[in-house]
Amino acid sequence: MAEIGRIRVAKDKAELVKALTSADSGTGPFQTFADVIVFAAALGAKHKKRVPLGEIAKREPAPIRVEHFNSMGHDRVIKLLGCTETQNIKILSPLEEGFDVQRNEIFEEYANGGLEILQVELRGAVDYTERILLLLSYERSNREIQEEEFNLTKFLS
């Protein structure tokens, strides 16, 4: 069950999350743990990979307060994933505590799925920033190729 007001990280992904940040003189491409989690959730959602957390990391990174995500504008991602996953606009209601918990759990599971993808993609990498840029570049070029293949507007006169 999701912790009210906090976003949790699976224990088996904690080291990866730490390695992806530039905090504490790290060399990762993200400034905060929250940035890593949001990126991973977006990646998990793109690949439709939602994975339950299992054992939760208790320290580094400890569960992150939702207010931290809100202050950075990342709450939109949490709400969007909750809404699209449940197909229920009522999940956006701030008045119902159960919806907060459900939104956070959906977000955590997509982030965990995205972190699994990153574990595979970053295996053996020395520079995570470069590898992530390559991953993003591939995704972008792959999307452009798909759009070209299915773009039938050129046949319209």
From TrEMBL:
<dbReference type="InterPro" id="IPR023983">
    <property type="entry name" value="DNA_S_mod_dnd_assoc_4"/>
</dbReference>
<protein>
    <submittedName>
        <fullName>DNA phosphorothioation-associated protein 4</fullName>
    </submittedName>
</protein>
